[in-house]
Amino acid sequence: MSTLTFLGAAEEVTGSRYLLEVDSSHKLLLECGLHQGGNDANEANVTPFGKLAYELKAVVLSHGHLDHAGLLPKLVGEGYSGPIHCTRGTRDLLAIMLRDAAFVMAKDIEWENKWRRKAGKPVIEPLYGLDDVDQTLGLCQSHPYGQPIDLPGGGLLIFHEAGHILGSAIVELTIPSGGQTKRLVFSGDLGNPSSVLMKDAVKLHESDLVLMESTYGDRDHRLLGETLEEFAQILEDAHADGGNVLIPAFAVGRTQEILYHLSVLYHEGRLRQQLVFLDSPMAIKVTELYHRARKALDSEDIKVLNIAASGDTSHYLPILRMTRTVEESMAINRIYGGAIIIAGAGMCNGGRILHHFRYNLEKSSTRLIIVGFQAAGTLGRQLVDGAAKVRVLGHELTIRAKVHTLGGFSAHAGQSQLIGWAGAFRNCPRFYLVHSEPGAQQALKAALAENGIQAEIPAYGDRIEL
Predict the structure, then answer these.
(1) Between 20 and 30 A from 249 (CA), which of 14, 18, 410, 425?
(2) CATH code of the domain covering residue 62
(3) What is the pLDDT, as a whole number, of residue 46?
(4) What are the tens digits of pLDDT across the range 189-202?
(5) Distance between CA 394 and CA 112 in Å, rounded?
(6) Secondary structure letter of residue 290 according to DSSP
(7) Which one of 372, 391, 409 terminates a domain?
(8) What is the domain extent for residue 285?
(9) Helices (H), 57-168
(10) Based on the domain organization, do 405 and 417 belong to the same domain?
(11) What's the structural domain count of the chain?
(12) pLDDT tens string 258-283
């Protein structure tokens, strides 16, 4: 019999990883994600893959976010040399994201090792380097949606649109198991239909086993129209107070969505700020990729931008400044006030947003807008939970900024949308809920049961037969 083992994103949001053993003869890895949030995550990331790196025959990715693909170069560095199957959009994003991750990691380790040497402690090594990233990208094989792909052991793979970020996919696997054929569907991260730029996620109807993300399994998102009105009002109030607006945003997906809405507000005459800074080299590269790949995005949303900018795509947001260098980033807080600053990391656990926190969080005129999920253990989660003080770059800061959480910008499906997607399956497959904190999973499990759908919540290391 073929089996599936849960090696990540089980009773947690990040660290996506699932091992498929096809009739005990071929090992396939679905996802290879980075754990994010706190010391436990760091310990999980440094754990060696061991002999698995040599035993694997193929890797399959749903999309390019680091919590789904961020440990690929470590796997390759430890000996994996087989194919990495993904969509074209995912391959293009990985070329940006993995190189950036390796660069940031090297800088962080360099800083860490300085004090380790002074303290007489052993130095540490990064999880991987740029050579590992380049080798990883060379193993990527990209495929269009809907194209059947043969896998080792007689399996078949098909990607379907997930509507989450560029290239994101629902993974459909047909796997031989004990003389039968079993179908496994992994939702990946399902998109929020209200999100701009992305197409809607495909609904599938047949499967024997479904792995479904449940990040927002305990709630629905606020209506986008209401969120946009609150967003506009926050920007108006910040302008009146003369304070900066800080938006920690994930470089992929969320940043492009925020820029879209700022562009619309600008052309409607509702954006009072004179400057918008995109202060993230990676987010700049991804935004440029989205522009080149706009034919793959939602055509109606692109039409809105084209009309607003009178068809001149260089003028979607004329007040946008892209700060690529450290010097340009540092100058923002030295020279400007009353600006909108979009910077990573999205969960505030690193990146240039920390430097902006250092200069702005203690000012009552500052507005901090949280637009994405904040995992437990991250600085972003502390801020969302109302911390009075936080430690940033070695400094304890008293929070005087006004903190706003706008869940309507989420790129994930909410509870009702997850139930609707699950309800499209006609043959009552087995459901396993992944990618969520326990409370949200339990809420979704109960809500699914009310709709006649039984689901289980696997723990790390659980192994099931297909």
Answers:
(1) 18
(2) 3.60.15.10
(3) 92
(4) 999 998 899 999 99
(5) 13
(6) H
(7) 409
(8) 224-409
(9) 66-69, 72-77, 88-118, 130-139
(10) no
(11) 2
(12) 999 999 999 999 999 999 999 999 99
On whether both 378 and 236 belong to a single domain, the answer is yes
pTM of the model: 0.90
Q: What mean pLDDT value characterizes the chain?
A: 93
Residue range 433-457: mean pLDDT, rounded:
96
The answer on 397 and 265 residing in a single domain is yes
Helix (H, G, I), strand (E, B) or coil at 31: coil
What average pLDDT score do residues 21-42 get? 88
Whether residues 297 and 169 fall in one domain: no
Residue 309 pLDDT class (50, 70, 90 cuts): low
pLDDT tops 90 at residue 372 = no
Taking the C-alpha atoms of residue 9 and residue 60, their distance in angstroms, rounded to an integer, is 16
In 185-224, which positions are buried (b, 16+ CB within 10 angstroms) versus exposed (e)? bbbbbbbbbbbbbbbebbebeebbbbbbbbbbbbebbbeb
The token pair at 169 is 């996919």
CA distances from 181 to 157, 206, 207, 209, 425 (A): 13, 13, 11, 12, 18
Residue type, 465: E
HSE-up of 243 (CA within 13 Å, CB side)?
26
> What b/e sequence results for 326-352 when a residue is b if at least 16 CB atoms lie within 10 Å of its CB, and e otherwise?
eeebeebbeeeebbbbbbbbbbbbbbb
Match 């980033």 to its residue by tokens: 329
